[in-house]
Amino acid sequence: MADCLFCKIIARDIPASNVYEDDRILAFNDINPQAPTHVLVVTKRHISSLNDLSPEDDQIVGELVRRAAAIAKERGISTNGFRTVFNTNRDGGQTVPHIHLHLLGGRGMHWPPG
User: 38, 46, 98, 100: which one is catalytic?
Assistant: First the structure.
């Protein structure tokens, strides 16, 4: 999608601090981190939100979650714990209409989150 911020990052039109990439996923540090570790894990194929997933997307969603856990382990935050979040649409806090998982860790998390 031409006007999507994350699609522009994936296309290298906008720079990002990448931490992982394969043929289906890109992970990069959030530019406005809410925790010492705040990584966004995104699909390279544009999917606007969780509401737009189909059964054919089950594997890619699993890949996002597994990659977040692997990054947490690499960053040394898996033992103490971390949070993964998918925000969906405006009231859910989604500000970029491209499916992405937030990996947050390196500090204690509070509940409810906000």
Answer: 100
